[in-house]
Queue: 2 jobs
Job 1
Amino acid sequence: GENVEQHPSTLSVQEGDSAVIKCTYSDSASNYFPWYKQELGKGPQLIIDIRSNVGEKKDQRIAVTLNKTAKHFSLHITETQPEDSAVYFCARRFDDYKLSFGAGTTVTVRA
Amino acid sequence: DAGVIQSPRHEVTEMGQEVTLRCKPISGHNSLFWYRQTMMRGLELLIYFNNNVPIDDSGMPEDRFSAKMPNASFSTLKIQPSEPRDSAVYFCASNLGPGELFFGEGSRLTVL
């Protein structure tokens, strides 16, 4: 179906620790998986994305992994900092233009 | 680059009133999307325009909602008459082809 399941819904980590968010989907036609970060009072902003022909992508402290066989993808944030506190959304693209979003994960980084 | 610009940022109105939300996409982008965000339903796609033409409005809740894109630099989302259950944050987003989707800062609507 169109839905993306995202876990956990909330995540509290100590500054400097890692945070991992996981998403699963069921439609094997999906080929593009972006992650968005939404800060309070702002719109979602793309932080990293991955396409189906790639298994892993890294950008500084952020990495995304994709397992197309198992239909799940994950966001990894290492060495977390207070400014990483936000709501994170995974998404998958289908029908060429539609993005189906997960329910979001509220990440709190404790100083 | 100014980004996607939405107005108003906040709107408080009474049930039954007409609400018009406005969006200016990023210059050069050919696709425009309207999303609604609520705690219960998350981010929902309401309508998608490509080259100013509505392609998919299957997410528009009911006939009280309508959207237009008279030109490449302007779109409106109208709710008439508004109801308390329409209270949400409405986002406009734009992109070029299959590229990165850029969101505006949203219009927070409260219908009393």
Note: The mean pLDDT of chain A is 93.
Job 2
Amino acid sequence: GAVVSQHPSWVICKSGTSVKIECRSLDFQATTMFWYRQFPKQSLMLMATSNEGSKATYEQGVEKDKFLINHASLTLSTLTVTSAHPEDSSFYICSARDQGGGQRERLNEQFFGPGTRLTVL
Amino acid sequence: DAKTTQPPSMDCAEGRAANLPCNHSTISGNEYVYWYRQIHSQGPQYIIHGLKNNETNEMASLIITEDRKSSTLILPHATLRDTAVYYCIVATNFGNEKLTFGTGTRLTIIP
């Protein structure tokens, strides 16, 4: 199946610093990627929809100035947590759909990255 | 809010069939039933999806009731590696459709 990678897999940073997380579709094109956040023992919560070449669409309650999303190419979206604080510590997961045409696009399967664990001290 | 309800947890003996139920009584005509699972500290993994017919692939079978208000995911011969949280999601297959994750079912396979 299609592969989505995330980098880094984990990161520890000091409060007040910014952290950038990359999400890449390795063998397919993704016009749209999704960013989720998951706190311990909770489900995934969608943060935003990342659109290649345009602004991201944020879910209600998610601060767009704090969580900066850039989708500069068909295979890369980045999430930057600006001025991170301990309450931002979480598991951040991205996903993408294969929108390059063909069987995978018709199946509408979403491929998820392995996640990035952010710990803010 | 998630459009599905699932039992919070289930146990299944290794080697037996694991049957995971899901209720989606408000499903729309153009919405599919998707199943994903999440093994601890990993990203979710697609399992199977269907519209109204039963579906089977190498991982699992999906049984959807005739009225489409509920479904059952069947793992025919559960192994310890199937221990995970299983999410049942209803969504269309439109281009940018979002997936809304509920609380899922935590399936534990017992040796």
Note: The first strand of chain B starts at residue 9 and ends at 13.
